[in-house]
Design a protein that fits this description.
Layout: E1 17-24, E2 30-37, E3 46-49, E4 53-54, E5 58-64, E6 71-77, E7 88-91, E8 103-105, E9 113-121, E10 127-135, E11 143-146, E12 155-161, E13 168-174, E14 180-188, E15 200-202
Parallel strand pairs: 4-10
Antiparallel strand pairs: 1-2, 3-5, 5-8, 6-7, 6-9, 9-10, 11-12, 12-15, 13-14
């Protein structure tokens, strides 16, 4: 067998594209494989993992920049670099991206804290990573801040995050007894699961 670590240099002036590697011995026996040559300045793989994540829940993972149709291993690790839970294997699509809906489970026995790392590695050793925060199972995941005070007939500016991206969230003003005041408004969250900047809630006159 070839010694471990055997490498074949790719010239700097090689044109990016698909190439064939051919090995031949003195008896004329032959073995081949194909490889893809990318530009020297090709973009590296990127990865984004949703955060925070409750223990026992899942982090949505978006990643691109890999070789198409390649198996990529994704592992959660704590702040010290120790693996947490089992890795998952993701097969990239024809564009070198993770399929939509790819998620990484967070074990129920994970310790709530910041500094967890989600790392993806392909067979060639290319790597992409992101950090996430793991919170307790009963921790408040959603946040909502409403500007105050607001005069009757005015508007309260709303900041909210932690929702699923692109969903409709209903917002209702209530009095101290819990009775609705005015009509609810519907807010569609942005790609990060937050309320769009400038979202306001009218206060009836």
């Amino acid at each position: 067998a070839f010694p471990e670590g055997t490498v074949l240099p790719v010239p700097e002036d090689a044109t990016p594209g698909d190439f064939t590697v051919v090995a031949t011995d003195p008896e004329g026996n032959e073995a081949t494989d194909t490889l893809e040559v990318t530009p020297a300045d090709a973009a590296e793989a990127t990865l984004e993992a949703s955060s925070p994540v409750r223990v026992g829940d899942q982090s949505t993972v978006e990643s691109e920049g890999w070789t198409p149709n390649t198996e990529v291993s994704v592992q959660l690790a704590d702040a010290e670099g120790n693996p947490v839970g089992d890795p998952i294997t993701v097969t990239t699509d024809e564009n070198g991206a993770f399929p939509e809906g790819t998620v990484l489970p967070v074990p129920e026995d994970a310790t709530p804290r910041e500094g967890y790392t989600v790392t993806a590695v392909d067979p060639e050793g290319n790597e992409a990573a992101d950090t996430i925060e793991v919170i307790a199972a009963d921790a408040e995941l959603f946040s909502l801040d409403a500007s105050s005070p607001v005069p009757a007939g005015g508007e309260s500016t709303l900041d909210s995050a932690g929702w699923a991206p692109g969903i409709e969230v209903s917002v209702q003003l209530t009095d101290p007894e819990g009775n609705p005041v005015g009509d609810p408004i519907a807010v569609t969250t942005d790609e990060n699961g937050a309320f769009p900047e400038g979202t306001v809630l009218p206060v009836p006159e």
